[in-house]
Amino acid sequence: MTNLNCFGRHRRQTAPQSADSRNELFSPPLHSRINGWSLPLHGFQLVAWLVYSFMAVVGFGVYLPLLPAPWSFAAYALIGAAFALHLVTHVAAVTIDPADLSVRRRKDYSSPMPVFDNTKHQHVIHNLHCTLCEVDVGPKAKHCSTCNKCIADFDHHCKWLNNCVGGRNYWFFFISISSAVIGMILLVLVVLFVFIEHYVNPSVLRTAPQFQTVKGNGTWLVFLPAAPLETDSVGLLALAFITVLLALAALLLLCHLLCFHIYLLSQGISTYEYIVRKRQSPNPKEKAQVPPALPSNAATAQSLGPLESPVNCDAPLSSRSCTFKLEDRGQTSGRLAEPICAELEEVNGERHLDFGSGPPTQMIPGEPVMSLPVHWNLGGKDKPREGRPIIQDPLGSSIMVHQQHLGFKEQMP
């Protein structure tokens, strides 16, 4: 019985059915796409062509013929130029093969591509050589997994074009977006003008010769002047409402895309480079969670002020306490961790601390303290002088003490 793992869909691959000891996973080879007309077509591509066709039919067949004579010629010229430019550039961006020159020279899209073996190569393109296309590519070329080929000056894969956008068709893509935005804005203005004049002054919209045979102001003609068809005011206004909503939705997407690519052009980067930088940059929330850096030894010394002997780090007696006194703040006693004592030693630039002959500043109740004066040597490198016994503390550091001044006092709690 076969066991299915429903929790790792992205890792599922096809395995050979033969019961071989070397059960290697493999994926079937794929053919490369030539351009945006290669099957299968994407759903967004069909939506883009349907929206363009709807706007062209409604604009040039219904609302532009209703404009008065001085404005109709200007509207036909401007909107017609925008729609024609978008059609030409859109078709060019879909038709052009954006593959790298070395890939296009092979012109072998009929044979399947070799399978990528991640056990031999960590990346598809290594040292400007694509292991799938088996050709040398340019420095900005990227291998598109959807088109299954290396794209010269790769920007992104556009689902609306069903084709990759690279160096060969980028400007066709950019001009098609710009012309679509201009055409949509002009068409929305025309539809709003017809909608308003329908209530304010309908006679302005009924200047065509065909309206002379129409009885009543509630009847309107569409698809003038070639094939006039009669409709009522409700149908004309409902169609205008649908056209404006659809145009505004398209403008929202197109303007966002156009502004984004204008920003990329101003920065001199591609969409792919922008995404890579975005992923590499840390999240602002993660920045706020990063703890502040610990102060350096110099900063610690400045915050604590210059030290004056006596300083008592009674490591042999209590490994977690340290009694010290500041020069400019009077006598102070506190319990500091051992790393702070080590930092104080490094700030003084010495590995040993010489203590004065005065008594300790304060004794902590319940803990035995060493009676000063003593001479501590924390370096552990100097040889002991004569008459100075070596006392080994629990931490393994040697402490040299004057024999004639050695003494311990214990204070009872």
Automatic annotation (TrEMBL):
It catalyses: L-cysteinyl-[protein] + hexadecanoyl-CoA = S-hexadecanoyl-L-cysteinyl-[protein] + CoA. The chain crosses the membrane at residues 46-67, 73-96, 170-196, 234-265. GO terms for biological process: protein targeting to membrane. Its EC number is 2.3.1.225. It is a multi-pass membrane protein. One of its GO terms (molecular function) is protein-cysteine S-palmitoyltransferase activity. Keywords: Acyltransferase, Membrane, Transferase, Transmembrane, Transmembrane helix. It is an enzyme of class 2 (transferase). It comes from the Eukaryota. Residues 127-276 form the Palmitoyltransferase DHHC domain. GO terms for cellular component: endoplasmic reticulum; Golgi apparatus; membrane. It holds the Pfam family DHHC. It is found in: Membrane. The keyword Transferase applies. The DHHC domain is required for palmitoyltransferase activity. Belongs to the DHHC palmitoyltransferase family. This is Palmitoyltransferase. It comes from Cyprinus carpio.
